[in-house]
Amino acid sequence: MDSAPAGSSEAAFDFQLYRYTPSLAAAVVSVIVFAALTVLHTWRLWKAKAFYFTAFTVGGVFQTIGYAGRIWSHYDKFSIGGFIIQAILILVAPALYAASIYMILGRLIRTVKAEHLSLVPVRWVTRIFVTGDVVAFGLQAGGGGIQAAGTLEMYEMGEKIIIAGLLVQIFVFGFFVITSVLFHVRLLKSPTDTAITGGIPWRRYLSVLYVTSIIILVRSIFRVVEYLQGNSGYLISHELFLYLFDALLMALVMAVFSVCVARSGRAVVPVSEERLYANTPMKPSPWKMVRTRHGNHWIPPTTPTPDPGTVSGISHTSFADTPNFDIQDLALLHHWTISTSVDIYKTPGADSLWQRTLPQIGFQYPFVAHAILSLAALHLAHMEGSPSSPYVVEATRHHEIALVGFHECVNNLTRENSEALLAWSFLNLLYVFSISKQLSHATELSSPRLRKDRLLGVEWIPMVRGIDAVLGPQYDFLREGRMAGALSLGNWHELNLENHASDAVDQELCRLRDAWRSSSDAEVYDEALHIMRKCLMYAKQFDTMDEETLAQWGFNRAWAGPMAFIHFAPQQYFTLLHQRQPHSLILFAYFGAFLHMLDDYWFLEGWGRDIVGAVDELLGSYWQPWICWPIQTVGLDAAGNP
């Protein structure tokens, strides 16, 4: 077949499909690389159930077939068939990569619950950018199809359409990068609670978006210059530039996503309202459900979620490797030793758990050490009294490092490291309570729902209950170790409400039975009420306990009462609480009142009052008579104001 489409003799002389013989070796290597990356990416997406990334996989298939077309052209460089296959498929594949990249941003914004920080309304993020990408894809594919018409005139027309498509792609990508950077800056200034405590590697995802977006932008600019130079231009006349600025860059994009995103695709699937408040106890997909004899429990997400293809790349002892600490970290450890550790229990005999035992564990397991330093930094921020304290930033930095070790520890749980996991869980609970107060004001002003979710324990309650399910098999080992005192509730199992003289507060609690007497869930509420009364009985005994008995008691004293309710109350109750059922909220208001009794503990300051206030807002005036006692106890008036 002739080397040029039909047209004038001069045009036929000037135009060529290729101005070189396509390299067989380069094409074969490209086919192998893109085929391997596509298979790897497909397998990992299947394992992560991240099917929204299908367009990315199709892009890999296009690249593979496109470079197979160049193998055809090596043997027959005058064949229009091989030329069109490689020209169109290699050209449009990056548009499919871009579509998947755009989807990540919208999902990430929802996952960290930062919709209010997005430049573009989050419901429009994916629509706007993917629509722009479809336009770019259509123009490039259409231009490539027109070039196959067989005339020089049509080839040049198709060339102009392709350039227009590439310019649209560059414009959309540029706007996308601006949107991502602005969201990143805003999230750094006003991080949401989920971004801080949810275990979501959002910084890594945004970094991946930046890197891949810049790579695709460079490739698109190269293509624009190439087409502007025309069929006889320097770039299109030298095959090296195609492999350097297209094949290599696009293979790099696929490699980055296969390593950094595909292995944890679940982490960017947002929480849906239907799942969160459904009748069955559900949590977002990154959370793991552990079945025990006491029921189903959820544990925090192991981010990144490893699969058989990636876990082998993680050292099973990496969470115990020796890290690098600096002089500022030493200052935080000093503050922990002389101040933070003795300001938690505020009891000399019990402070040894925080002052000596936990640091000893931290010296063995650096992720526990980072958790200690994060809490010390938050204690300093609390003492400063400024929500913009630099210690808050320092605390979040250490916490993020600690999270990585925690996730590895969960995935490789043994008897030996179970003690470290328990220590980290205690520290993390205090971190969640204290960091929420530091960050809540700015993030919750524009989203009241975030505040109610935080106060009603949408995230921290499953965290408290879930860790017990994980460590349950190691309980016998733990109760013989250094943390044994923290696991004992003393005479909890011996407490008997029947032999207890009911006081005014207990009578107030018993009165609640009338609120749900006709409810189909009355049995669940009765069981939860029984646990709450027992928790109050447990806490009150320390008011009259003699010094000798108190000296022999373990670490858990009055402060353990409210948390015991979270631990022992039935799961069905917390499901009803997630659904915001009025009777569950009434009982939780009393929990808030009991928590308020611990208001002088710095990490719980304000929590009890805020819980009662949130419940009062949700229930309204109709149910308010049932929560008069909690309202009065925390110091709110009838309108819910302090």
UniProtKB/TrEMBL annotation:
Its main location: membrane. Keywords: Membrane, Nucleus, Transmembrane, Transmembrane helix. The chain crosses the membrane at residues 20-43, 50-68, 80-105, 161-185, 205-228, 240-259. InterPro entries: Fun_TF, RTA1. It is a multi-pass membrane protein. It is found in: Membrane. GO terms for cellular component: membrane. It comes from the Eukaryota. This is Protein RTA1. It comes from Colletotrichum sidae. The gene is RTA1-5.
